[in-house]
């Protein structure tokens, strides 16, 4: 059973940077794709970025290009999401997800496993 545990969220000021972590356990195949999503209050879950377990094939939502960086440390079974120049509109719960089929698409429906989320709050 795959388990995902996010960490690294918190209360930050606009302009700060933050690195979120997602530790994955139970991933036994290297064809998984890992994704980061976020969900703000009253809004739908939004795709941020995805990366193949191998560290290749990185994708970003068009609106996320530039300030977000996804990366993978296979030795630690950890996926990271670095966010630079945080804005109040980045306030959301950030979720890590695993796609066993390895597509890494933007649709949350294609992901099989989800973490509990980590809250990021950006004050102006």
Structure in words:
- The protein has strands at 3-7, 10-13, 18-25, 33-39, 46-52, 59-60, 68-73, 78-83, 92-99, 113-114, 118-123.
- The protein has 124 residues and is mostly beta strands.
- The termini are far apart.
Structural key phrases:
124 residues, four-stranded antiparallel β-sheet, single chain, mainly beta, seven-stranded mixed β-sheet
| Tally of alpha and pi helices | 0
The overall pLDDT average reads 94
Count of distinct strands = 11
DSSP helix fraction: under 10%
So what's the overall shape? globular
Structural class: mainly beta
Low confidence ranges: none
Distance between the termini: 40 Å
Strand content: over 45%
Question: What is the H/E order?
Answer: EEEEEEEEEEE
Task: Provide a concise account of the structure shown.
Helix content is 0%, strand content 49%. The protein is mainly beta.
List the helices and strands and how they pair.
Elements: E1 3-7, E2 10-13, E3 18-25, E4 33-39, E5 46-52, E6 59-60, E7 68-73, E8 78-83, E9 92-99, E10 113-114, E11 118-123
Parallel strand pairs: 2-11
Antiparallel strand pairs: 1-3, 3-8, 4-5, 4-9, 5-6, 7-8, 9-10, 9-11
């Amino acid at each position: 059973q795959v388990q995902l545990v996010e960490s690294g969220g918190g209360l930050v000021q606009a302009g700060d940077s933050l690195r979120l972590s997602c530790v994955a356990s139970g991933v036994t195949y290297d064809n998984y794709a890992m994704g980061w999503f976020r969900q703000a209050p009253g809004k739908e879950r939004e795709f941020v970025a995805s990366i193949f377990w191998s560290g290749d094939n990185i994708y970003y939502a068009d609106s996320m290009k530039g300030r977000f960086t996804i990366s993978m440390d296979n030795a630690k079974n950890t996926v990271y999401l670095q966010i630079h120049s945080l804005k109040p509109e980045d306030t959301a719960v950030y979720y890590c997800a695993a796609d066993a089929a390895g597509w890494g698409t933007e649709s949350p429906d294609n992901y099989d496993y989800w973490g509990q989320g980590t809250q990021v709050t950006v004050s102006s």
